[in-house]
Amino acid sequence: MGLPRRTQLTDQLDALTVALDGSGDDLPAILAVLVADLTAAISSFSGLVMTVTAGSQPLAVDVMISRVAATSLLLPLRTAPGDRLVLYAQNPGAFVDLAADAERIPGFGTSVVLDRHLPPPTASDSRRLLNDLAERSAVDQAIGFLVDQGYPPGQAHPELLRRATTTGVSITTMARRIVSRPGGPRRPAS
User: Fold this and answer.
1) Residues 106, 59: one domain?
2) 3: confidence class by pLDDT, cuts 50, 70, 90
3) Containing domain of residue 18, as a range?
4) Residue 35 belongs to a domain
5) 183: left (phi over 0), alpha (psi -120 to 50) or beta
6) Per the database record, which ranges form the ANTAR domain (predicted)?
7) What is the sign, positive or negative, of the torsion defined by CA atoms of 89, 95, 99, 102?
């Protein structure tokens, strides 16, 4: 029982760290320790989904050891409204003590949700989450390139959108084109 597909998880966490402007420190190491601790403490632990807000969009990373879950525990994260950690286990009642302890933490109280049997993400959901992270990362990188090229921060996103619309491609496709150009994007001559 280790982290499934370490490369895919590392890619998700790296994209999340970029989306959080590098404020995530070493997310792969932090999450690996959390999963190891939960696996040691809860014999039927089957995985977790962490959702955090980066900018204005929620981003999720999942570590599912098993897709079988009979119980769940939702814990709010104090980073932003809607940020949360959902734990899954195969044995009913596996989180009863943890939920009781978490409810005593100031600020958590009724935000802790036990045994709502929230379904863990399916494989297709995981791919969608990975795609969302990769798309968000490409757009953010393209905006960064545009700012580096002299566009004011407030005009970089509209410029990216204008270029995508003008060429008839999605904003993600245009962002990937900008990021992949040798030397980055070029500002049009005035």
Assistant:
1) yes
2) very low
3) 6-121
4) yes
5) left
6) 125-179
7) negative
Amino acid at site 74: L
Q: Region of 61 please: left (phi>0), alpha (psi -120 to 50) or beta.
A: beta
Looking only at the bridges linking them, the beta strands covering 71-76 and 84-89 are antiparallel
Q: What is the pLDDT of residues 30-61, one digit of tens each?
A: 777 888 888 888 888 888 888 877 666 777 77
139 and 114 within one domain: no
Q: What's the token pair of residue 80? A: 């932003």
Which bin fits 77, alpha (ψ -120 to 50), beta or left (φ > 0)? beta
Q: Which two structure tokens, joined as six digits, stand for 69?
A: 């879950």
Evaluate whether 53 touches 19 at the Cβ level (below 8 Å): no
| Contact of 63 with 35, CB cutoff 8 Å | yes
Give the Å distances, CA to CA, from 56 to 11, 14, 20, 37, 136.
21, 18, 11, 31, 11
- Three-state SS at 56: coil
Do 86 and 48 contact (CB within 8 A), yes or no?
yes
On whether both 19 and 84 belong to a single domain, the answer is yes
